[in-house]
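Can you make up a protein sequence with its backbone structure tokens?

===
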Amino acid sequence: MVTSERYHYSAAYPPDWQVVESEGEWAAESWGNPFEPGVDSYALPTADPWTIYEDPDVWILVASHPTNPGESLKEWAARLPAWLAPISEWCQIIGDSKIVMVAGEPGVQYSEDCPTMHYVRTTMLVHKGQGYYISFWYPHNADQRVLGTYENFLGSVAFTR
């Protein structure tokens, strides 16, 4: 279990994984990456953030940023497709988004396919004026156990304020 003082959440992650809280603030101008400022990265200790686009490591990434005054969940969640537009030749949203519950808050979950790299599942949610980005990067050949890692992580999230 980890508690993020910066983003005011706690969550459980696999015991053989590590968490790295990158310094700085996430700008919320692009999707989070493990080498981007302000992103909490969860992965096996052998995962290399500089090869995230090429290798099949499994990652969970969490970042948060204040929403604009009055910004709704729908507006916050719409940022993800806008962030992906410049890289649409590499990654695209597949299927329809769905509503999921995380720590009692509704979130919008997208599935993305990056054919030369991996799949990504991202949940966007808002809690007390903070927009959250919780993303799961996994290889195309992932099994159900790997996919359950993200569901278990989301199910363990609790807000601490």
Q: What stands out?
A: The first helix runs from residue 73 to 77.
